[in-house]
Amino acid sequence: VCSAEVTDPASIKAAAARVGEKLGGSGLNLLINNAGMAKPNSLDMETQESMTEIYTTNTIGPLLLSQAFLPLLKKAAQGSPGSALSCSKAAIVNISSSAGSIQELYMWGPTHVVSYRCSKAALNMLSRCQSLGYREHGILCVALHPGWVQTDMGGAGSLKPPLTVDESVRGMLKVLSSLSEKDTGTFLDWEGKVVPW
């Protein structure tokens, strides 16, 4: 097991090096950027510090992780020349949120979480940019919404999330196994449905 502090570039580079050593000469097929944080700030109470901290974790962290692991992802893709884009070839999956959907603005009433929403909207754009920039290397890139899940972060308020961790993970694994060329650059949920930007 290898961990990295996503707000620390040195930690990220060290983690990529450790993973590279463990893989030997083979590449990395799948990078899932899952780290995330939120603060329950209303629009009027949002601060520069909160915005910066959350954007650093939720958006810059996935960017730096993807950059650090790119050589290993390229190596995996090169090991499957000619095959179509898929998670078994090489893929970056950024765990996003429907809270980052500008069109949907999911659950605005009960919780503003402005910094979280903004960071996930930016992560969605990063995912789209990665899909364009890394396609030539044979790497599939998507943003994936796990649903509103019963986790420490998801269930922190007074409302109870409808999904268990097991339900969400089972759904996401099914989606990951079915992703193909047509899905790169998309924003999907744990059931494989398109989430509006």
TrEMBL record:
GO terms for cellular component: cytoplasm. Signal peptide: none annotated. InterPro entries: Fungal_SecMetab_SDRs, NAD(P)-bd_dom_sf, SDR_fam. GO terms for molecular function: oxidoreductase activity. Coiled coil: none annotated. It holds the Pfam family adh_short. This is C-factor. It comes from Chaetura pelagica. The lineage of its organism: Eukaryota, Metazoa, Chordata, Craniata, Vertebrata.
